[in-house]
Amino acid sequence: MAMNLRLRDDQTDALKQRADQEGVSMHAIVMQALDDYLARTAQQAMVRKTAKAQAAKWGELMDRLK
Length: 66
Fold this sequence. Notes:
Distance between the termini: 53 Å
Radius of gyration: 21 Å
Low-confidence stretches: none
Structural class: mainly alpha
Largest sheet: none
Mean pLDDT: 92
Order of helices and strands: HH
Shape: rod-shaped
C-alpha cells in the first residue's frame, strides 16, 4: 500500500542526515521506526492485558495480605 507521509522541514532534514550517516534510505529508517513502534506497543498491550487478568485473579488475596 502506498501512502503519503508529511514531515516538518526539521524532521525531513534530520531524517535525511541520519540516512546519509547510516548509508540507508530515508524509507528504510521510517519502516524500521514503524516496525519498532508496532512491536513495542503490541508488547505493552499484552502486558496491560496480562496485568489486568492477574489483578482480577489475585486481587482478593493481595488485599488480604496488606
